[in-house]
Amino acid sequence: MVHTKNPNYIHHSNSKVADSMREIVFGMEDGMVSTLGAITGIAGATFDPFTTVLAGLVIISVESISMGVGEFLSSKSRKEIDQRILHEEKEEIRDFPEEERKELLGMFIADGWPQDVAKKMVQVTSQDKELMLREMAYRELKIVPDKMTNPLKNGFIMLFSYIIGGGIPLSPYFFLEMKGAIICSIVITLIALFALGVFTSHFSKRNPIKAGFEMFALATFAAVVGYVVGKIADVSLGPK
Fold first, then answer.
1. 3-state DSSP call for residue 43?
2. What pLDDT shows up at residue 118?
3. Are 80 and 115 in contact (CB under 8 A)?
4. Mean pLDDT in the chain?
5. Domain segments of the chain: what residues?
6. CA 167, 170, 175 angle in degrees (round to 5)?
């Protein structure tokens, strides 16, 4: 029987979208929920389309840049830490080769390899310092050097995902009168949240309805909590 790669398997598709799913979902969900909560409150309080749109654009601009920069810096910090750990491991392999070989042997045996096979694997691996480093990185440090994150890419994806997400609840205010825009903004954002959940199920192979409802329910809960807190703060701290 000839083995052919199943294109439906994620690890066969080499999907760039799947690799960036965290940033896409995080950015779009936060963009939709944060922007919806903010502009709905502003629209309800002012009933002024110009003020609402201006506030929405400012919120999306500031928050998207903040999210993008935050993702870049956090990814960069994580990468720098991993690189430092790898450098330290490289020094240990150079300075204490016998101890490192014993460590690797123990990890091979712990993984279920027979002792005689594990010893042969260590013998072969230790002859190549780069191969030894990759094995120790993967098995001891849980780091895959070739799969390190790209901070700049992550930051840009987060930024643009937030802009797209934030633009969804804001868009009705460009075309509709205020009352209709408020209702439309809420409805299309809830639909978009459900659709985002369904979209993720294409890669996770979960039930799309369940995935969509999960995204819809959790994001709606976050939006409602934010709205309620805002109302309480307005009543408690607002002008008497």
1. helix
2. 93
3. no
4. 87
5. 19-227
6. 115
